[in-house]
Amino acid sequence: MENILEVKNLNIDLITEKGNKKLIDNVSFNVGKKQSYGIVGESGCGKSITALAVMQLLSFPLKTSGGEINFHSEKESVNILSLKKNEIRKIRGKEISMIFQEPMTALDPIFTIERQIIEALKFHTDLNKKDMSDMALQMLKKVGIPRAEEILKEYPHQLSGGMLQRIMIAIALICKPKLLIADEPTTALDVTIQAQILDLMNELKTSFDTSIIMITHDLGVIAETCEKVAVFYAGQIVEETDVVTLFHNTAHPYTSGLLKAVTSLGDKSKNLFTIPGMVPAGGHMPKGCRFEERCNKKMKICKDKSPELIEIADGHKCRCWLYAESGDN
Ligand SMILES: Nc1ncnc2c1ncn2[C@@H]1O[C@H](COP(=O)(O)OP(=O)(O)OP(=O)(O)O)[C@@H](O)[C@H]1O
């Protein structure tokens, strides 16, 4: 499979008066053309800042401190990290779009829905006003908005959270981007609306041939939408594989913990399972495995030495001493 995005040894630092703290540590992954790639992990693992780096949207006190983010459009291949501001603007919103968790804060309360949808068209195309309005209308219909003509003239506060998220998707897709990054797109919504939005994204992915990076803390969302998954923990990838293997042949104890937490939600006879402890904060990483303190399979070596991300089976990578030859007690 050809790749649309190749992230190589990405490092992101937090700049502080006492020096820089590494928040993302040598993260590498590839997203295939037309593929849905999931990034999953608890809050604070570095999912969102990785996505912001792909859009070149990190701002002080965060900065990329190494690596490459190679984006392969139809026309050319570019390293996003080396693009100037005017160059990334041509890609952002056109070739790569992003949907955020909170549509209400991402939309501007003082502009109509129509104005917000055609903003990207104005910037990236030479279409006249009538054609832009027609496209906005068609797009609203595509994302399942009823009374689309009327809604175009309305303002964000007049619409429900589910409707606003559909509008965010319409804005993100209006220029037919090759890559769509969805950062917790359903977290703020009711469960039934969540399912509708995920169905819609799956449908649109097929009709627009878009690759998707789905960022979530919810393995249920991953199961519904993704083909390949990276599990993030404390600024590193700890497991990467196809979605079926992730659920049926789980390797990393952290992934097992996340899965156990989801399955215990559906079983009323059991207490809710949570992984004990917390994700270590950036700049305070332990010397050994970052998950060691919380791990129910830890060995002596885990405290002393950090494991590498290695291929444990075809296309299945894991960062855990359980799978390394030298991982004896
Ligand atoms: N603007 C910022 N200033 C300082 N630290 C930040 C900033 N943004 C993120 N961080 C830190 O970077 C780390 C990763 O944050 P990030 O938001 O990427 O996590 P996440 O996995 O996406 O979690 P969430 O789902 O809560 O957003 C965290 O330790 C967070 O505190």
Write the layout of secondary structure elements.
Elements (H helix, E strand, L loop, with lengths): L2 E14 L2 E14 L3 E5 L6 H8 L7 E11 L4 E3 L5 H7 L4 E4 L3 H4 L6 H12 L4 H14 L5 H5 L8 H13 L5 E5 L7 H18 L2 E6 L2 H7 L2 E6 L2 E7 H6 L4 H13 L34 H5 L5 E4 L2 E3 L11
Parallel strand pairs: 3-8, 3-9, 6-7, 7-8
Antiparallel strand pairs: 1-2, 1-4, 4-5, 9-10, 10-12, 11-12
Helix pairs in contact: 4-5, 4-7, 5-7, 7-8
Q: What would you note in describing this structure?
A:
There is one protein chain. The protein is an alpha/beta fold and 329 residues long. It folds into 2 domains: 3-95 and 177-323, P-loop containing nucleotide triphosphate hydrolases (Rossmann fold, 3-Layer(aba) Sandwich); 96-176, no CATH class. 34% of the residues lie in helices and 25% in strands. The protein has 12 helices and 12 strands. It has helices at 47-54, 85-91, 103-106, 113-124, 129-142, 148-152, 161-173, 191-208, 219-225, 243-248, 253-265, 300-304; strands spanning 3-16, 19-32, 36-40, 62-72, 77-79, 96-99, 179-183, 211-216, 228-233, 236-242, 310-313, 316-318. An 8-stranded mixed sheet has the order 6-7-8-3-9-10-12-11, with helices on both faces. Strands 2-1-4-5 form a 4-stranded antiparallel sheet, covered by helices on one side. Strand 1 and strand 2 (19-32) form a beta hairpin. The protein is globular. The protein starts with a strand and ends in an 11-residue tail after the last strand. The model has no long low-confidence stretch (mean pLDDT 91). The structure holds adenosine-5'-triphosphate. The site of adenosine-5'-triphosphate has 15 residues, from helix 1.
